Amino acid sequence: MREKNDNVNHSGGAPEDGVLDLIHAVMHQYRAQQFQVLRDGPHDVTHMESKVMGYFGRCPGATQSDLARHSGRDKAQLARLIKGLRERGMLEGEADETDRRNTRLRLTAAGAAVQETLQQQAKLLNAKAVRGLDAAQRAQLTALLQQVSASLAAAPS
């Protein structure tokens, strides 16, 4: 049985009051479908594992500390994720030549193949999300979301 989004935290007031609620609901739907693809797919990869693999796919040779700075995640949580991915043959590492305490990580061939599959699945889900919008509408949506993001970034804390 599918869960429906709850309306507990959704505003019923002015349209501007519900913009972030709607963005949240859309992201919830996207993440739920993304999770289903990961869960039901052939690779048995969790959401966080896919994020870690994506980072090292984009930044081969980065360290666990680099990932922690980039993601804002707890170093212990990342260490467990990295250890698991290394044990499963998805990541490999070598000691940093300038500081042997650091390990430079990269995807293995098997990890790169899984990451490629995950990227293809993400492309399909992204296409599904904007199906029914023409190119002008997609461009307008992108511009509007960039404006929302810029407004939030510029807002005083």
Automatic annotation (TrEMBL):
Q: Which residues form the HTH marR-type domain?
A: 16-150
In terms of InterPro entries, this protein maps to: HTH_MarR-typ, MarR/SlyA-like, WH-like_DNA-bd_sf, WH_DNA-bd_sf
**Record's protein name:** MarR family winged helix-turn-helix transcriptional regulator
Species: Janthinobacterium fluminis
